[in-house]
Input
Amino acid sequence: MMVRGDSFVELPKHAKPGSVRLFFTSPPDIAELGLDRDLNGYVAWQKRALGMMASYVADDGFVVVSQTDRKIGGRVYAKHVLNINAMLHLGFALKDHKIVAFGEVGKRSPYNFSYQHCLIFTRKGTFERKGDILRDILVIEDAPFHGRAWGDGFVELIVGALSAEGDVVIDPFAGSGVVPRVAERMGRKGIGFEIEEGKA
Output
């Protein structure tokens, strides 16, 4: 199910605190939020987004953030470090950390990276460690990496490993809606929120 609107406003209408098995998302980039020149504002926004997910996920559930770092003003802004530090501060453990490349390994760019840091957080959750979820580097061939566009295969891997049929799986910044669509197909209750018109 896709919901048009701001996830900070809409999430409480669709879930109760502690009820979500899996949040799986790639939060908007600093430029997508119009905060290019306001790094402090972006850090505050990112911490707010992580705090929202932390409030609604079950103690044995998971928050998965898969996001690129950013090159700003000739320096690397390590968003994955912000994500890790913020979630540790919220009482979560970093359960796993993967590098995810979308068929463009080694691409040269002065502004962007061709891979994401996929961070798996939980308070008390465990998952069965077998198959491709064990890989520390995932090369996803079914969709080239364009911003936050993921292929079905990557979503199936994360959803399949970290949730079961009937579980609530949410992407609060859903973009094209691949997470809720794949989650529904896999027998979960998939919900995606997207504020930007023209997506989903």
Summary: DSSP finds five helices and ten strands in the chain. The beta strands are 2-4, 20-25, 57-67, 70-72, 75-77, 93-101, 115-122, 137-139, 168-171, 189-194. The CA atoms of residues 174 and 192 lie 5 Å apart.
